[in-house]
Fold these 2 entries.
Entry 1:
Amino acid sequence: MKLRQQDTTDLIVQARHLYLDYAQSNTDSHHVAVVKDANFAIERGEKFVIIGPSGCGKTTLLKAIGGFLTPLQGDILLDGKPVHKPGPDRAFVFQDFEQLFAWRTVLDNIVYALQVTKRIPKQEAISKARSYLELVQVAHAADKYPYQLSGGMKQRAALARALALEPAILLMDEPFGALDAITRNQLQLELNDIWQRTGVTIVLVTHSIQEAVFLGTHVMVMSSSPAMIREIVDTSHAEEFGSKEFDDISKHLRSQLIHHETRSEEIAQLSAVE
């Protein structure tokens, strides 16, 4: 397994000998191991993508970084301090389209989030909300309700709400997985542009190797559950679809998953062209 040598002063997330598990039911004391002895680090301002077989613990790991799960062993550090609970310094965007409050307009969804988490005056919140809607190109839908939006517009609005909180880390769990191919490709391009303009650290889970290579500056490959880290690959110079480097890295990641006995149906899903 290849791990990066990094200057610890530039790290925003560190996982040290991390073990994660979950109870089989609310009343069951038996726990199932999900992630085993994970050690990795994420640099400030990078796009860190996590791939692996279905059910291997990718989302579980994301929730642990977000502070929603307590490790069985080991710890996660955020800016050098242990993560114990969620906070506005970590914002989530999920695959589910229904992330917005249905009874609030797009603008009000963002204003409400800002007032609750940032405690800023309403007029300031409105101004900030509008600027982030402009950033994700849905300013024209500010006064619409979620049911009036397409799936892609809902994801843009959810992204605007997350970015408006100005988090240290944007945690994204297959945010484009339920979109059609054209909309997904457009949002991938827009996310790269938003990252360039904001410099926010992004941690993203995906099932798509192509999406991982296109979006990621580094891609972490996980094994089947209980998941271990197989490799962390530098993809920062392979953002152009169809380039030799893009294709070579994609093939390498696919070979890593196949080599470690990923089931054939999962490989088909991981290799799908979005």
Entry 2:
Amino acid sequence: MPRSRAIDAFPVLEHPREKKVIVLSYGRNGTLGLHNALQILGYNSYHVMSCVQAGASHLRVAREGMMARFDGVGKRYGREEFDRWFADNGALVDISAYFADDLVAAYPQAKFILTHREPSAWIRSVRNTLVPLEEATASFPIWHMSFVDTFTREFARTTRYWRRFMWSNPAGEEGVNSDEKAIEGYLRHNDRMKKIVPPEKLLVVKLEDGLGWEQICPFLGHEIPDEPYPRANNPKEFLEIVPRIIRSHWRKTLATYATVLAPVVAAGVWYAKGGR
């Protein structure tokens, strides 16, 4: 019997939204600000945070896609799977780095953006943001809640695959992550994107040279909006976003458990008091 896939629960739309912009950059390269900018321009962008906010079903789809890519488990995602997953989205940011080669092949008509920065600045940002998040998924209370909360379990499992990608450790070997290896993978990814995307379809922006409306709007064919370009999140803001999303899911789970367990607890008290 074929293995059940999470993506199969997503409907097949006759006319999924056209993918017009795909950002190929690793995270911590101005991608959240770029996601917000594309939202302002009307693209309905999908970011890693969109995946987390969408809940367990989207996290599982992301994880299974990476399992197919890294571990050869299941079918590697192509146009069919992406059209289901991102049916309502005209732009992909951050999440797209994990499937960059396949997205370039699936949507050759799109425009592509690659933001990058000095490798030392990038790895420092990773250390200040993603590493604390990685550590949190393996410790209290997230690790403990993963036993009772589906969202937390999928978040922790998917984060492990994101970590394997970011640290250029596709096999998930223990104890081999290093700044040097991560930077090698980061530079290799950026070089590959420049090779596989036609130059006229790719905007390359170095953060140290500036990233704003002046860079992206001419490339995308938009007038520059009247509002300021969205400021990228600093490490402190980043480390507040995910816990806020997780807590919202926990409140729902704990409310459900309270509703289910309350009669059981009441019956136990009644029995302990000698009830018949």
